[in-house]
Amino acid sequence: MTKIILKGPLSNIFGREELQVPSGSLIDVLRFIDKTGVLLKGNRIRSGFMVLVNGKDIRLLKSYDLNLGSDDLIEIIPINHGG
């Protein structure tokens, strides 16, 4: 199982701050929890969210097909900007 930590208002949307989900590719894990399309649009993470895998921004890893194991940690952080 892969651990997911949801930050800010995401914990209210998903009903908890931490989830344990079956391991798989990053996109499959996100699809598993995102039944309403809050995080994903098709096979892409919506803008406005930072996703870290083991503390590394997935934008730097450049792959949503990253295979996750039971020791991996995903953190999802909403990044809202106002003005």
Structure explained in plain terms:
This protein has 3 helices and 7 strands; from the N terminus they run E-H-E-H-E-E-E-E-H-E. The radius of gyration is 12 Å and the shape is globular. The strands form 2 sheets. Strands 2-1-7-5-6 form a 5-stranded mixed sheet. The mean pLDDT is 90. Helices cover 20% and strands 31% of the residues. The chain has one domain: Ubiquitin-like (UB roll), CATH 3.10.20. Strand 5 (49-53) and strand 6 (56-57) form a beta hairpin. With 83 residues, the protein is α+β, with helices and mostly antiparallel strands.
Topology of this protein?
Elements: E1 2-6, H1 10-14, E2 18-21, H2 26-33, E3 40-41, E4 44-45, E5 49-53, E6 56-57, H3 58-61, E7 73-78
Parallel strand pairs: 1-7
Antiparallel strand pairs: 1-2, 3-4, 5-6, 5-7
Short description:
This protein has 83 residues and is of the alpha+beta class.
- State the CATH superfamily name: Beta-grasp domain
Number of strands: 7
Assign a percent range to the helix content.
Answer: 10-25%
User: What is the first-to-last residue Cα distance?
Assistant: 40 Å
The fraction of residues assigned to DSSP E strands is 25-35%
Q: What characteristic shape results from the CA principal axes? A: globular
**What is the helix tally?**
3
Tell me the name of the CATH class.
Answer: Alpha Beta
Architecture per CATH nomenclature, i.e. the level-2 architecture: Roll
Mean of all residue-level pLDDT scores: 90
* Secondary structure category: alpha+beta
Neighbour order of strands in the largest sheet:
2-1-7-5-6
Largest sheet geometry: 5 strands, mixed
- Write down the secondary-structure element order: EHEHEEEEHE
Give the C-alpha Rg.
Answer: 12 Å
CATH topology (level 3) name = Ubiquitin-like (UB roll)
The tally of structural domains comes to 1
Low-confidence stretches: none
